[in-house]
Write a structure and sequence with these properties.
This protein is of the alpha+beta class. The protein has helices at residues 11-16, 39-56, 118-130, 176-181; strands at residues 5-6, 24-27, 30-33, 62-66, 70-72, 75-77, 81-85, 107-111, 135-140, 145-150, 155-159. The chain has one domain (35-181): tt1808, chain A (Alpha-Beta Complex), CATH 3.90.1570.10. The mean pLDDT is 92.
Length: 185
């Protein structure tokens, strides 16, 4: 199980530290290291980023980022996949993508690793929902389910041929089976 390291650091002190591999997250004064991605996790993350960007990027609907640090409300998290609606992507004065994202994604996707606590990851998705994220997915490769957190904090488990909810205007029809079939290479 991943250890949680309690620190008295402030968010500002945390953000001044050098990035680590794998990254650490800071939620309500607690620093938690993310687990190092393994085969299933890396495959699912890569396929999800590709699938979302394939249907959203050309028409400037949304963009999916892998492992992007998002900082808000005394917390700094790194979702496995962070999807931002196109016009909400932070930009510099020159119109380029910003390096710092001081907002949470519109859609946050987490992939449960073997040594991760399901409750801690769910707690992170609920934190996102409380702070403006419209949709959260918690992908559990072990039991091949996807727990979805909606903007009103309603939680629902999807299995098998259930079509998964996505953000408005994203034309992506994926079932739970589609997601886990990506692991058969």
């Amino acid at each position: 199980m991943i250890a949680t390291i309690e620190k008295t650091n402030t968010l500002e002190e945390f953000l001044q530290q050098a990035e680590t591999k794998p990254p650490q997250e800071f939620i309500n004064g607690v620093i938690t290291p993310k687990p190092m991605p393994q085969g299933e996790h890396s495959t699912l993350q890569s396929e999800l980023v590709s699938a979302v960007n394939q249907v959203t990027k050309a028409n400037k609907i949304a963009y999916a980022f892998p492992e992007l640090r998002c900082t808000i409300n005394n917390s700094s998290i790194v979702p496995d996949v962070a999807v931002f609606v196109w016009d909400k992507i932070p930009r510099t004065e020159k119109g380029r993508i910003a390096n710092r994202f001081e907002r949470l994604p519109d859609w946050s996707i987490e992939i449960l690793s073997p040594d991760q606590s399901l409750m801690k990851v769910l707690d992170k998705l609920l934190f996102c929902s409380e702070n403006g994220t419209n949709l959260g997915w918690l992908i559990n490769p072990e039991d091949e389910t996807i727990l979805v957190v909606f903007s009103d904090q309603k939680v629902k488990i999807f299995r098998d041929d259930n079509i998964l909810p996505v953000l408005d205007k994203i034309e992506l029809n994926l079932t739970v089976n589609d997601i886990f079939n990506w692991l058969n290479i």
